[in-house]
């Protein structure tokens, strides 16, 4: 299913050029041996630095991770940090499972840049970590999976 979502997200991406001031939406995607992921973020027309939505789908393929991370929805509440300027785009997300009494955390940091402030494509890498949490703590814990891979993000108007 994640591959279908990734394919659909890729179909909507084109290679035209736009300025940073015209950014309304950004689509990001990656697919490798460890994860399939696509996400979309929408920015305010009045304040280009304010995200109005952040959503997507991801699936970690490694059998060592909990089943809840083998296919999960990315939501705005998972977005912990983001940065966008003329050349750089960065996102950091965290998800917990189960949500009410977390035993596991998946985190992904995406760091991308583009060749110029008018280029439509951001390219870079992501750092993925899945951790089994210590009892009663949302920080620290035992790493189950760590992985780095390539990611791209395209600007849509």
Report on this model:
- The structure is a single chain.
- The protein has 157 residues and is mainly β.
- It has one helix spanning 2-11; strands at residues 25-31, 35-43, 51-60, 72-74, 79-84, 88-97, 104-113, 121-132, 142-156.
- The protein has one domain.
- The chain contains one helix and nine strands.
- A nine-stranded antiparallel sheet has the order 4-3-2-1-9-8-7-6-5, covered by helices on one side.
- The longest helix has 10 residues, at 2-11.
- Mean pLDDT is 83; it is low at 1-21.
Our count of helices gives 1
Spatial shape: globular
Secondary-structure element sequence? HEEEEEEEEE
The largest sheet is: 9 strands, antiparallel
Q: Which secondary-structure class do the elements indicate? A: mainly beta
What fraction, in percent, of the residue positions are helical?
A: under 10%
How far is the first residue's CA from the last residue's CA?
26 Å
Contiguous runs where pLDDT drops below 50 for at least 5 residues: 1-21
> What integer value in Å does the Rg equal?
16 Å
- What share of residues are in beta strands? over 45%
Strands of the widest sheet, in order across it, are 4-3-2-1-9-8-7-6-5
Number of domains: 1
State the total count of DSSP E strands. 9
Mean pLDDT: 83
């Amino acid at each position: 299913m994640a591959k279908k979502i990734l394919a659909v997200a890729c179909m909507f991406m084109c290679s035209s050029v736009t300025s940073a001031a015209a950014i309304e939406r950004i689509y990001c995607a990656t697919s490798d041996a460890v994860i399939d992921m696509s996400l979309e973020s929408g920015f305010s027309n009045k304040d280009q630095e304010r995200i109005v939505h952040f959503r997507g789908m991801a699936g970690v393929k490694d059998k060592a991770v909990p089943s809840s991370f083998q296919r999960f929805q990315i939501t705005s509440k998972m977005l912990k940090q983001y940065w966008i300027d003329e050349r750089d785009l960065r996102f950091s997300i965290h998800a917990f499972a189960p949500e009410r009494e977390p035993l596991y955390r998946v985190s992904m940091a995406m760091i991308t840049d583009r060749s110029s402030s008018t280029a439509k494509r951001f390219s870079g890498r992501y750092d993925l970590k899945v951790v089994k949490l210590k009892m009663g703590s949302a920080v620290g814990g035992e790493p189950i999976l760590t992985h780095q891979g390539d990611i791209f993000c395209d600007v849509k108007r």
